[in-house]
């Protein structure tokens, strides 16, 4: 399997985040991608390719243009105020406030274009976001051109980013960009299977009213887990999209047996949908040792996930999302891929 990777991810480094009221070094750090890349090499998964460059047209097919155009302006505006470190919002237009008038100050715009304080910017963040976007489009093109599967080693991740907002370490929704690109290239139906521990609220929001993209999500129950405000089982899609969004909220402590039962059901629904291609939002924060997550999957489970996805017999694009147990992130993420190849 080919991997697409860009060293430009590493510019998104030294971010800080709020964890239980304390500002701590961000969990979504450069070593994650480096360790996965090293494992791709040691497992001899296949060639590692640099991404081709793209303009932002494909991003604006699923994100609002003003949101995308805002992203490269963030850090320069932050620095213009004499600031350094991580650009982080601290005020949001929640219920009872106005979102139709956005003051032209970076603090207001950061709040307007985000849903949490979890998408910090540093000097190299925009370049990293762009590289992650180029990585996923390059991977999609490989699959479109006949590769049975490809691995887009994306960093930063994307599945929490909605049409007009960032959050949860996500800025451009890489998986959603790829799904739309496949449709624009002639696919009739695309399925997105999101197996990250956290609900892909952004991906759901983007395609919620559409029947040409089926979104299936296995994740920590939002009644107890981030992102809290989307991801319930009663969210089936709206309008033409009714029935094409499926959520599998699962409790803290979920082990392989019940997680795999949800995967089986999702795969059955995906097969019934009959997509031309499947995009997998590959997060491995379902791992028992993940520092911010509460599922109990073991490293030996990940190859079985890959094997099950291979049985779908569909062109497959794997898109890296989360996973924070960095010592094992390579084994777990690449385990899905070697399992897919039945190695
Ligand atoms: N700091 C407060 C607790 C953690 N809140 C943010 C969790 C973000 C999870 C991100 C992810 O793993 O879902 C992704 F795949 F997007 F990377
Ligand atoms: Zn996650």
TrEMBL record:
Gene3D superfamilies: Histone deacetylase domain
SUPFAM superfamilies: Arginase/deacetylase
Start and end residues of each Histone deacetylase domain: 28-332
Keywords for the protein's UniProt record, in alphabetical order: Hydrolase, Metal-binding, Zinc
Transmembrane regions: none
Signal sequence range: none
Cofactor(s) listed in the protein's UniProt record: Zn(2+)
One family name in Pfam for this protein: Hist_deacetyl
InterPro entries registered for this protein in UniProt: HDACs (IPR000286), His_deacetylse_dom (IPR023801), His_deacetylse_dom_sf (IPR037138), Ureohydrolase_dom_sf (IPR023696)
Family: Belongs to the histone deacetylase family.
Protein name: Histone deacetylase family protein
Upper classification of the organism: Bacteria, Pseudomonadati, Pseudomonadota, Alphaproteobacteria, Hyphomicrobiales
């Amino acid at each position: 399997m080919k991997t697409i990777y860009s060293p430009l991810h590493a510019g998104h480094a030294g971010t800080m985040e709020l964890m239980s009221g304390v500002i701590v070094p961000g969990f979504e750090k450069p070593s994650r991608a480096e360790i996965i890349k090293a494992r791709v090499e040691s497992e001899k998964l296949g060639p590692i390719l640099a991404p081709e460059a793209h303009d932002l047209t494909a991003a604006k097919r699923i994100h609002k243009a003003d949101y995308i155009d805002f992203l490269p302006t963030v850090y320069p505006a932050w620095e213009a105020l004499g600031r350094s470190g991580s650009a982080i919002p601290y005020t949001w237009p929640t219920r009872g406030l106005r979102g139709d008038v956005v003051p032209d100050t970076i603090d207001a715009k950061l709040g307007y274009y985000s849903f949490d304080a979890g998408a910090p910017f540093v000097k190299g963040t925009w370049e990293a976001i762009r590289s992650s976007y180029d990585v996923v489009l390059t991977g999609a093109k490989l699959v479109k051109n006949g590769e049975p599967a490809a691995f887009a080693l994306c960093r930063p991740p994307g599945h929490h980013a909605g049409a007009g907002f960032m959050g949860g370490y996500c800025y451009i929704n890489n998986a959603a960009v790829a799904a739309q690109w496949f449709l624009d290239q002639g696919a009739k139906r695309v399925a997105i299977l999101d197996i990250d521990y956290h609900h892909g609220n952004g991906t759901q929001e983007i395609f919620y009213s559409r029947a040409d993209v089926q979104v299936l999500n296995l994740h920590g129950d939002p009644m107890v887990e981030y992102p809290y405000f989307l991801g319930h089982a009663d969210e089936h899609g709206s309008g033409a999209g009714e029935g094409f969004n499926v959520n599998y909220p699962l409790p803290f402590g979920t082990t392989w047996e019940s997680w795999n039962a949800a995967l089986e059901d999702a795969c059955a629904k995906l097969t019934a949908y009959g997509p031309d291609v499947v995009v997998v939002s590959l997060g491995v924060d379902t791992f028992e040792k993940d520092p911010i997550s509460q599922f109990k999957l073991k490293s030996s489970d990940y190859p079985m996930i890959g094997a099950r996805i291979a049985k779908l017999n569909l062109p497959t694009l794997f898109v890296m999302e989360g996973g924070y147990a960095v010592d094992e992130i390579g084994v777990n993420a690449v385990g899905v891929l070697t399992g897919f190849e039945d190695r």
